[in-house]
Amino acid sequence: MSEGITVPYEALGGEAVVRAIVRDFYDVMARDEPALARLHQHNPDGTVAAEAQERFALFFIGWLGGPQTYMERYGHPRLRMRHGNVRVDTGGRDAWMRCMRAALDRNGVNEPMRSFLDQKLADLADFMRNTPG
Question: Whole-model pTM?
């Protein structure tokens, strides 16, 4: 990593901040990206199930270099396999990134961490594409 960033999880402020980013990610998605939100809805009222948010929070914590609780509970993330039933094209990738960037904004993630995360998250989102376009 660059310029003094050692572990993103720690640099962000740990579990409370990462969980706030995840919460805000889902809030922004529900408000601004209805097509993307529909892919994540698991409750009859159109909200994302708490279990799904918890799984993403645990994944994100581990992905950022924090405790590997996700791996301990669920095994390797195998992101492309787990999302194989979901069409992920450029539009979906971009919508996901808009939500994540808004969540980072809401939580005051600044440089140099911001540039680092923008790049790593964009790489991750692009890796998830499984449909042309």
Answer: 0.87
